Amino acid sequence: MTTEGFIETSVCNRGRSRALGALAFVAVVAVGGCGGGENADEPVSPGAPASDAADGGTPFYIVDVEVGEPFNISNADGRTGIVTLHGIEIEPECSTDYGTVDAAEGTFVALDMELETTANPPTKYISSAWFDEETPDGYTRATPSTLGTCIADRDGFRSDPNPNSKYRGWVLVDVSNPASTLLMSDIWDGRSQPMVYRIPLR
């Protein structure tokens, strides 16, 4: 195994942060998003206002995620796959077998994730570039890019996904506060307002 597959860039992180900036003002209310409903992940109108929300005011483009519950992901062309978050490790034990491990800027979080793609798969594999952080005081911030050396001894997502395929691997994210919530989105979504999947860390 090499560490190449674990090098994750955040070249598009800032673009996603722009789309997610309004999240600091959103009430935390669960909305449906688990795999099952046919309309759960149809392309949404990018210009629809936040007032077009489910009861309670959560914008239509935010889906709350729980460990073990599959959820649909999509882009401008329709459904791209089903993702399941199998586990979260805060401050995972780092391997030194593949080189020196750079210290986290904040706290490392390892995510055990599974992706089953449709005939219209995501453009890019899941990496730290898919994640922003919503802090406990409500601010949205970009997560730093990470070298996956810490978890290089584990399976990871190494290449862009193929249609109708299944993948499972670990993603390393660096957060400023382990009590934060992760905001996952496909930044290659193709919509001006991509879908956002909110993952509490605790």
Characteristics of this structure?
Immunoglobulin-like; five-stranded mixed beta sheet; Lipoprotein; mainly beta
- Fraction of residues in H or I helices: under 10%
Shape field: globular
Q: Largest sheet at a glance?
A: 5 strands, mixed
How are helices and strands ordered from N to C? HEEEEEEEEE
Sheet with most strands: strand arrangement: 1-9-8-5-6
Q: By helix and strand content, what is the structural category?
A: mainly beta
Total of domains = 1
The count of DSSP E runs of length 2 or more, i.e. the number of strands, is: 9
The fold-level CATH name is Immunoglobulin-like
CATH class: Mainly Beta
Mean pLDDT: 78
What value does the Rg take, in angstroms?
A: 16 Å
Number of helices: 1
Distance between the termini: 31 Å
Describe the protein:
The chain is mainly beta and 202 residues long. The chain has a single domain, classed as Immunoglobulin-like. Helices cover 4% and strands 29% of the residues. It has a five-stranded mixed sheet, with helices on one face. The chain has a four-stranded antiparallel sheet with strand order 2-3-4-7, with no helix packed on it. It is globular, with a radius of gyration of 16 Å. It starts with 12 loop residues before the first helix and ends with a strand.
